[in-house]
């Protein structure tokens, strides 16, 4: 299956993408991984992307699209892929459509993870990270530490990242609504969108998504 995963920040896209890709035996292709791989391997696209990033500028769509096309052309993506974080706007969606059409391929589904905005803010703004080890992550509501602001694992101080503050989260949501959400209408016009609730336990959401996708492919 060839799938695009969309949803607001805090919808759990990365977590769901990893589980779904494993269950469907297709590669999980995320924008972050594309950038890291191209930059570390010093590909031409990676060098170009780094030059924009080092200057504090956004990487142009055509560079991101080029990376995605190269990745989708690799052998492990021959039978499908799950795109996470790409396309991020309508122009990238149109470029993806064209690239797939040129290869005689098409998307099977666009999975839209739906989460109420207040829940997104609650999920992200409640995160607390350990200063000693950023892999130690807690949540003031869902997985609180035994002692407030103290890491259960190493005793380090827990803090709230600037990106996780409510004001910043709401700005990120504004960007999502303005730039990324319109791709849902783009794909609805093609009859590709499958919307599911991303509320509940991780495995419940995964099962919901698998059922919806299998219904689409049936």
Identify the notable features of this structure and list them briefly:
globular; alpha/beta; single chain; 218 residues; 9 helices; Rossmann fold
What would you note in describing this structure?
There is one protein chain. The radius of gyration is 18 Å and the shape is globular. It has one domain (2-217): Rossmann fold, CATH 3.40.50. It is of the alpha/beta class. The chain has helices at 13-24, 31-40, 44-54, 61-72, 90-102, 117-125, 166-180, 182-188, 202-217, and strands spanning 2-6, 28-30, 81-84, 109-114, 127-130, 137-139, 158-159, 193-197. The model has no long low-confidence stretch (mean pLDDT 94). The longest helix is centred in the C-terminal third of the chain and has 16 residues, at 202-217. Catalyzes the reversible transfer of the terminal phosphate group between ATP and AMP. Plays an important role in cellular energy homeostasis and in adenine nucleotide metabolism. Monomer. ATP binds at residues 10-15, 127, 137-138, 200.
